[in-house]
């Protein structure tokens, strides 16, 4: 498919994609790695989880979801650097460790843990989930997967495909505001957070990115991550 032609993420399309992955990559000498890039609030983690769940419904344990959020720097380091208000910006991740872990898990006989982000403690949890010998497909997602700067640019050689989840910034902003309100922020606090951080990250992501292998869109605007 032409990368400029948006692919609609209907339920049927997600199911068919998962089936194709399972059928096409079972015998690969390396694992199939797929990345989902997009601005904050576009529904990246929602899409990644749905794809992984669908693959695992067809073949339990065949797919793993490694989110970029597991590679947030710890809050103590962010505070020490004065970066806590910008948490979620590209420089607030251990990007080298993220790229290296994905590179390592391309090899089918490489197994082990990977960190995930706890939204209760607001910290990464080391080695919380695992890539096993049964894992054939790894899905990852994050804002900076198509960033042209190093070390992010090395993902071009690590990922077999990288998609761009296309969503209007104003729609994504609405989803982010809704999420912040749900965790107890006031409307004023949610707006301030968006303006000082999420808006800047969105502008950075949209200003420079490598060409994706596929552009995808939700068929309606009721998703979010």
Automatic annotation (TrEMBL):
Alphabetized UniProt keyword annotations: Kinase, Transferase
Keyword Translocase attached: no
UniProt keyword Transferase, yes or no: yes
A Pfam cross-reference name: PRK
One GO molecular-function entry: kinase activity
Domain of life: Bacteria
Phosphoribulokinase/uridine kinase domain location: 33-182
Gene3D superfamilies: P-loop containing nucleotide triphosphate hydrolases (3.40.50.300)
Entries under InterPro entries matching the protein: P-loop_NTPase, PRK/URK
Name the UniProt record assigns to this protein: Pantothenate kinase
Organism in which the protein naturally occurs: Algisphaera agarilytica
Source lineage: Bacteria, Pseudomonadati, Planctomycetota, Phycisphaerae, Phycisphaerales
């Amino acid at each position: 498919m032409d990368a400029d032609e948006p692919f609609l993420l209907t339920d049927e399309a997600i199911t068919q994609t998962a089936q194709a992955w399972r059928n096409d990559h079972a015998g690969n000498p390396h694992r199939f790695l797929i990345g989902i890039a997009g601005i904050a609030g576009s529904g990246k983690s929602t899409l990644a989880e749905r794809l992984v769940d669908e693959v695992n419904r067809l073949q339990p344990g065949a797919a793993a979801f490694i989110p970029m959020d597991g590679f947030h720097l710890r809050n103590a380091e962010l505070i020490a650097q004065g970066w806590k208000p910008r948490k979620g910006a590209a420089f607030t991740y251990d990007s080298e460790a993220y790229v290296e872990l994905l590179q390592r898990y391309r090899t089918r006989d490489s197994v082990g843990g990977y960190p995930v982000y706890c939204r209760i403690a607001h910290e990464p949890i080391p080695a919380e989930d695992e890539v096993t010998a049964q894992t054939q497909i790894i899905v990852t997602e994050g804002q900076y997967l198509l960033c042209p700067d190093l070390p992010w640019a090395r993902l071009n050689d690590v990922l077999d495909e990288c998609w761009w989840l296309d969503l209007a910034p104003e729609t994504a902003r609405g989803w982010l505001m809704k999420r912040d309100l749900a965790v107890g922020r006031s409307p004023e606090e949610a707006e301030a957070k968006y303006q000082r951080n999420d808006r800047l990250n969105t502008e950075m992501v949209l200003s420079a990115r490598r060409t994706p292998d596929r552009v995808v869109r939700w068929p309606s605007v009721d998703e979010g991550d």
